[in-house]
Write a structure and sequence with these properties.
Elements: E1 14-18, H1 31-37, E2 40-41, H2 43-59, E3 68-73, H3 81-92, E4 96-102, H4 107-115, E5 120-123, E6 132-138, H5 148-161, E7 175-177, H6 179-191, H7 193-196, E8 208-213, H8 222-229, E9 234-237, E10 260-261, H9 277-288, H10 290-294, E11 299-305, E12 312-318, E13 323-327, H11 329-343, H12 345-348, E14 352-356, H13 361-370, E15 373-377, H14 381-401, H15 406-419, H16 427-437, H17 445-458, E16 466-470, E17 476-477, E18 480-483, E19 489-492, H18 497-511, H19 519-527, E20 534-541, H20 553-570, E21 575-579, E22 588-594, E23 597-606, E24 612-619, H21 624-641, H22 648-663, E25 666-667, H23 668-678, H24 686-696, E26 700-702, H25 706-709, E27 714-717, H26 719-726
Parallel strand pairs: 1-2, 3-4, 3-5, 4-7, 8-9, 8-11, 14-15, 14-16
Antiparallel strand pairs: 1-6, 5-6, 10-13, 11-12, 12-13, 16-17, 18-19, 20-24, 21-22, 22-23, 23-24, 25-27, 26-27
Helix pairs in contact: 2-3, 2-5, 4-6, 6-8, 11-18, 14-15, 14-17, 15-16, 20-21, 22-23
């Protein structure tokens, strides 16, 4: 009997470790059984997933047989076995697959809207390790992603389709190769002055050297081409080999939680970024141009993306300290917001500044001081995207009500109000209503002209009261537009790393010109655009995520652990409130208030993209030690309760921790030998395991031994690792 889940998807679609359906580990299992029971994603499940989605669209009359579905992917599947399976699913369901090939995730909704296709699919695991893959889906009309109600319907469709023998179905749907056109449409979108925020200033990027890191992913060749097209004088691309090593020693994931990189973090065999080509290149180039940078005649910066291109971090060489500054999504969003309200102060006043619970609490506070209206939402750029689309469509309705009789608009407003009532968000319903709203009064040239006028007004800077949406992890959502194949201008909201990079470069060069800011003043404004608060996230990997859902035993006990931690650190000076996030009701969020004002937040949530659970603490900088203590207490509880003993990586982790406890230091060769002798059938990536045990969970670190100094890397337990081993029976 299959352990039937109510919802197969995580934060954004599905992501799992991939395995071929002929592998002995899934012998005798159906694609669905392998997914549910073994936590493994086969190429046959890819086919099942896209087949179920497209067939359901046809069954509900959202599309007709033969209508187009665009599909693209990141390059982690060089042989194309998983991507071809996804295409087969579309075609067997009678959809036409418009194949974009290797393209960034944001290019998919943009090209989908350009062609007015009936859906978009991306085969990617985003920032996850290269041994994983997954699928993200975009809905037609507005480019929304799937929300909980949509996930539930698709999950049910997959269960139904799993009873069929897909191998007997013919690929009756068409296929079109559209890679070249899709890339050109995307580049035109990115480089459009409105979307890129580029003004008529030929000297804007003077002296700039930009190091571009596409993380061996979807932006290889594309990002560098875009930066050159807009006039950046020197563009250097790193990590641009399409060899399947997506996110390996590259990309944003390795930079999370890092704000400054010093030479000792790069140089030497034990250095954290010893094999990170982009950072090495920034140091080398920055040192060579140091004097010109000090005089503000030159600038060496980095644009770092993730494997599928929807996230971006900004790097800057600091010639005064010989370091590299790292700007996460919080700082990037603040600079962009400051630029918008500086350029159009009245237009953007009271516009939404949306960020998620992962952001620094001070980001919203200081955005409010700039004149924005801050709003907090759940984790995932789809929730930011939702806020943007809701704002856009409500504004559209308001403008329609001034041009059409009330009786024509009122029914749509009533439907809209019902959609916003508490409950599971329904992306398909929002998309259908949005399409209907844009057809009010259609039928005559006069009414078509009215809609065209409204669209033009909505694309006026600041007319839409949504300025920017951001995640600390590097997702950014701002208004853009695309001109469809039929010549109609329509808005586009999508998490887009390259658009964010363009907007950030324009904002920084415009806000802090060399003629006004000295190098020291510039670097201070760049790195600390607002007074930073304290933010830290602790992770435990290979967890049984079903244990941490609202109302479970672990949920209740963890709530008490965090409450006790707050009281131990703050005493009676605070009150504690358990918050419910409508977007993510299974996120455990406890806020601390002093005199009615929130001063701190501690929240625990299962990752929707990886096999891990996180504890995040946010609050004032001066409370760093207190909040860290609370986070450590919660983490220790999770280590003891949430580890999945059946997870292959959890088994391997336990074996290596036990080995290190016995021999004190160990090499990768010794680890591999121990795993082979102890558990020969265990198939894992040792590189991934050591990274997740070390950088991510802080259970091990490099041992400073004579062998290690001689470039022979050895590992030992950290204090947390020794504690965790002491809990083993």
């Amino acid at each position: 009997m299959i352990n039937r889940l109510r919802r197969l998807q995580g934060t954004d679609g599905i992501r799992k470790e991939v395995i071929f359906s002929k592998d002995p580990r899934v012998k005798g299992l159906s694609p669905l059984e392998a997914f549910l029971e073994k936590n493994l994603l086969t190429e046959e499940f890819m086919e099942l997933y896209t087949y179920a989605h497209v067939r359901r669209l046809i069954q509900t009359a959202a599309m007709k047989p033969g209508d187009e579905i665009v599909i693209g992917w990141d390059p982690r599947d060089p042989e194309g076995l998983f991507t071809e399976a996804a295409i087969r699913g579309i075609r067997k369901a009678q959809g036409k697959a418009v194949v974009m090939g290797i393209t960034p995730t944001p290019a998919v909704p943009i090209y989908m809207l350009y062609r007015q296709a009936h859906g978009g699919i991306v085969v990617t695991a985003s920032h996850n390790p290269r041994d994983q893959n997954g699928i993200k889906i975009f809905l037609a009309g507005q480019g929304l992603k799937l929300f909980p109600a949509d996930d539930l319907r698709l999950t049910e469709a997959i269960y139904q389709a799993s009873r069929e023998d897909l191998s007997k179905l013919e690929e009756v749907g068409g296929r079109e190769d559209a890679h070249e056109e899709a890339v050109e449409v995307f580049l035109d979108f990115i480089c459009d002055p409105f979307n890129a925020w580029i003004e008529n200033d030929p000297s804007l990027f003077g002296g700039l050297t930009l190091i571009v890191d596409p993380a061996h992913g979807s932006y290889v060749g594309i990002a560098a081409a875009a930066f050159k097209r807009v006039g950046i004088p020197e563009v250097i691309e790193t990590n641009h080999q399409l060899n399947g090593n997506v996110n390996v020693n590259s990309g944003v994931a390795d930079l999370e939680g890092v704000s400054r990189i010093t030479p000792d973090m790069v140089e030497g065999p034990l250095a954290r970024f010893a094999r990170y080509e982009t950072i090495e290149k920034i140091f080398k180039t920055g040192r060579r141009k140091r004097q010109d940078i000090l005089n503000r005649k030159a600038q060496v910066s980095g644009a770092v993306f993730d494997g599928d291109g929807d996230r971006f971090y900004y790097l800057e060489y600091n010639p005064i300290e010989d370091s590299v500054l790292v700007l996460s999504g919080d700082e990037i969003a603040f600079h962009q917001a400051k630029y918008l309200i500086t350029r159009h102060p009245e237009a953007y006043r009271d516009s939404l500044f949306v960020n998620t619970i992962e952001s620094d609490l001070n980001a919203a506070l200081f955005a409010s001081k700039l004149g924005f209206h801050p709003r907090l939402t759940g984790v995932g750029d789809k929730w930011i995207l939702l806020q943007a689309v809701l704002t856009w469509l409500q504004t559209y309705l308001d403008l329609l009500s001034k041009r059409f009789p009330q009786q024509e608009v009122a029914p749509f407003q009533a439907q809209w109000d019902r959609l916003l009532e508490p409950g599971e968000v329904d992306g398909e319903a929002i998309s259908r209503l949005a399409t209907a709203i844009q057809q009010i009064g259609q039928g005559s040239e006069q009414t078509k002209g009215i809609h065209k006028e409204i669209m033009a007004e909505l694309l006026t800077p600041g007319r839409l009261k949504f300025a920017i949406g951001s995640e600390e992890s590097g997702h950014q959502v701002t208004l853009g537009y695309v001109c469809t194949k039929a010549g109609k201008q329509i808005p586009v909201f999508a998490g887009n790393g390259l658009k964010s990079a363009m907007n950030t470069l324009v904002a920084l060069r415009s806000l802090y010109p060399p003629s006004v800011y000295s190098i020291q003043a510039y670097l201070e404004a760049l790195h600390h655009p607002f007074s930073p608060g304290f933010k830290k996230t602790f992770y435990v990997y290979y967890t049984d995520k079903s244990q941490l859902t609202r109302g479970t035993k672990v949920w209740k006990e963890l709530t008490e652990v965090i409450r006790w931690g707050y009281q131990a650190q703050y005493g009676e000076e605070i009150t504690i409130q358990l918050k419910t996030l409508p977007e993510e009701p299974d996120t455990l969020y406890l806020a601390a208030y002093r005199e009615g004002v929130q001063i701190a937040g501690v929240f625990c949530r299962n990752s929707g993209t990886e096999d891990k659970t996180g504890v995040s603490v946010r609050g004032p900088l001066e409370d760093a030690q207190k909040l860290s203590q609370i986070g450590e207490m919660a983490l220790q509880y999770l280590f003891q309760t949430m580890k999945d003993p059946n997870h292959a990586y959890a088994k391997a982790e336990r074996i290596l921790l036990g080995l290190l406890n016995r021999i004190k230091t160990g090499s990768e060769a010794e680890f591999q030998k121990e795993l082979t002798e102890t558990c020969p059938d265990l198939k894992i990536s040792l590189d991934r395991l050591l990274k997740e045990m070390g950088e991510k969970q802080k259970l091990i670190h490099m041992a400073h031994t004579p062998e290690a100094e001689a470039s022979k890397r050895r590992y030992e337990l950290t204090e947390r690792g020794r504690w965790y081993v002491s809990t083993f029976p």
